[in-house]
Amino acid sequence: MTFIADLHIHSRFSIATSRDLDLASLWHWGQLKGIRVVGTGDCTHPVWLGELERDLVATESGLFRLRHAPPQHLVPANCRAEVLFMPTAEISCIYRKGGRTRKVHCLVLLPDLQAAHRLNLLLSRIGNLGSDGRPILKLDAKELLQMVLDAAPEALLIPAHAWTPHFSVFGSGSGFDSLAECFEELTPHVHAIETGLSSDPAMNWRISALDGITLISNSDAHSAAKLGREATVFRTDPSYRGIRQGIIEGNGVASTIEFFPEQGKYHADGHRCCGVRLTPAQTIANGYRCPACGAKVTVGVLHRLELLADRPEGARPENAPPFQSLIPLLDLIGGALKVGTGTKKAQALYFHLLELIGNEFHILRDAPVGLIEEAAGATLARGIGKMRLGEVEIDPGYDGRFGIVSISPLA
Questions:
Q1: Closest CA to 33 of 5, 64, 1
Q2: Please, where are the H alpha helices in 132-200?
């Protein structure tokens, strides 16, 4: 069977996250979005781990369900579905290697909460796990991988948002040129990378060293409403073992759901303080300096990937799963109505569509355009149709500023 999973999220115990990130809210938004399996996030945090133990119960699948689910009437009837949880965490490794400071974020998938306790015992010897849901540790990413395997041989470590400039395995600011340079003899235990919001699979296909590495996508949500802004479609059993094997073997990933990568906030080069965005060629011509003030520019994902690519644009490895780039439904509604996404008008239409048609991913990916037009009018229906065809206009993001993806004309 196929199902959608979002395995990289955060709890309210991570810095700069919403207070609504609790299990009940994730259960609720998982159904609204159409996500079957949600990562718990932050299972390294002792208080959050205690809540997971209190509020979750293991199922035969190796995943977890809520011990006491909220009333189903809180979810539109057309969206109601089972939501399962997997213990996950993101860990920030900051350390010196090869004469440089490295900053690598790693996503960890764990088979059970006992494994989380074992991993936390090892990590607590390195730093304070209670200070942040995403702990920042002076720890080599290779050593973290060994700790993860020691805690649970069935666990997986996946380099998170692998191209983000400042905190990733390939980042322009502090990353490596290959997985082997980072993980050395443990590299065979790294089976996947997370592409991140500023890259998509097509960009990663240009690097032959990533052949055989499964590409997954997740939201890295810092609020429940951002759940599923990227996600992975699995073709396997909805179980820990099924997901793990699907990632290791690669054939368990049916497709991924992506941002348009230009919408990511580190896609292009630039200097946000001066409002300067640059192409890779312009950055090189300016000596990697801002032409307005002379400060160093942030080298974006597109530029960094160009430096490491050994294949031309458009190359695709054999049997590479497809992907689909989507715009969040509320963003499309806001554009169609010419209002902000947080307005009562936009929110009302969003929930009206969920009640009439089904969950957000069904509306964005599968629902007949004619049905959407009947429920919400021609403008929104036309916008969704254009998005499915990739007919979008993009003002690329750079240096921490999200890009703007729009569809014109929507009127």
A1: 5
A2: 141-151, 179-183
Which residues face 4 on adjacent strands?
233
Sheet holding 100-109, edge to edge: 136-137, 88-97, 100-109, 156-159
- Pairing mode of beta strands 100-109, 136-137: unpaired
Q: Contact 148/119 with Cβ under 8 angstroms?
A: yes
Residue 288 contacts by C-beta under 8 Å, 6 or more apart in sequence? 296, 297, 299
Pairing state between β 156-159 and 37-39: unpaired
Residue indicated by tokens 């996600």: 231
Average pLDDT over residues 279-304: 98
Tokens 């080298």 label which residue? 299
**326, two tokens:** 């989507």
CA 44/CA 162 separation, integer angstroms: 21
List Cβ neighbours of 332 (8 Å cut-off, separation of 6 or more).
Answer: 380, 383, 384, 387, 407
Find how far residue 37's CA is from the centre of its chain.
14
- Contact at 8 Å (CB) between 3 and 238? yes
Quick one: tokens of 8? 């990289």
CA–CA distance, 381 with 156 (Å, rounded to integer): 40
- Bond before 291 cis per omega within 30 degrees: no
| Chain segment 344-371, per-residue pLDDT in tens | 999 999 999 999 999 999 999 999 999 9
Task: Write out pLDDT tens, residues 317-334.
Answer: 999 999 999 999 999 999
Which residue in 302, 319, 311 sits closest to 200, CA to CA?
A: 302
Of 295, 311, 302, nearest to 279 by C-alpha is 302
Distance CA 245, CA 30 (A): 23
CA distance 30 to 9: 12
Q: Which CATH architecture has domain 1-327?
A: Alpha-Beta Barrel (3.20)
| Among the listed residues 190, 367, 397, the one whose alpha carbon sits nearest the alpha carbon of residue 301 | 397
Sorted by where each begins, the domain ranges of the chain are 1-327, 328-391
